[in-house]
Specification:
Blueprint (H helix, E strand, L loop, with lengths): L2 H7 L13 H12 L10 E6 L2 H9 L11 E8 H7 L6 H19 L3 E5 L4 H7 L6 E10 L13 H4 L5
Antiparallel strand pairs: 1-2, 2-4, 3-4
Helix pairs in contact: 2-5
Length: 169
């Protein structure tokens, strides 16, 4: 798949088919994530793939952005604060940006595999941390739902490039 086709074709999917995902597919998506750039090459990420429907149902119960969704997979994207502390914490929000770039790689790779995805920021981080038994120093920042799309929304409008670009020569 052409990269620009993937960028233009990917949508935030909120309605999934019941079809389960296999672990090899998840591994491919995570492989794409770990190739994301990161500040000072810290790679401060940790990923937890949840395929258990009961755990997904519990996460949905305290995640306002997912009340009506039933994805077959949720990936929890966490920062490994232990790595960050070991290298010095003077990087501000850079590490969240690292995780966001990994998330974009995940969503584009999922799309290239015929899957849909949607990033979630509205969830109870402490509840997720306890539910999946994250180790000390691991902080969940984003959730990504992944599955086979049951509905693909039309692309939203975009501002014209002339409105958002200034070329300085």
């Amino acid at each position: 798949m052409d990269l620009f086709d993937a960028i233009e074709g990917r949508r935030s999917i909120r309605k999934y088919k019941e079809e389960s995902l296999d672990e090899n597919t998840i591994m491919k998506i995570i492989e794409a994530a770990i190739w994301a750039p990161s500040a000072s090459n810290l790679q401060p990420w940790h990923f937890t793939a949840i395929l258990n429907r009961d755990i997904i149902k519990r996460i949905r119960s305290f995640s306002p952005g997912m009340f009506r969704e039933n994805p077959p997979c949720i990936i929890v994207l966490s920062l490994n604060k232990n790595i960050i502390k070991a290298q010095g914490e003077g990087m501000g929000n850079d590490n969240v940006f690292d995780l966001a770039m990994a998330a974009q790689n995940m969503m584009l790779s999922a799309y290239s595999l015929g899957l849909g995805s949607c990033i979630k920021l509205s969830f109870n981080r402490e509840a997720v941390k306890k539910l999946i038994d994250l180790k000390e120093g691991f902080e969940p920042e984003f959730l990504i739902t992944i599955g086979y799309p049951d509905e693909i929304p039309e692309p939203p409008g975009r501002r014209d490039i002339k409105e958002v670009l200034n070329v300085v020569r």
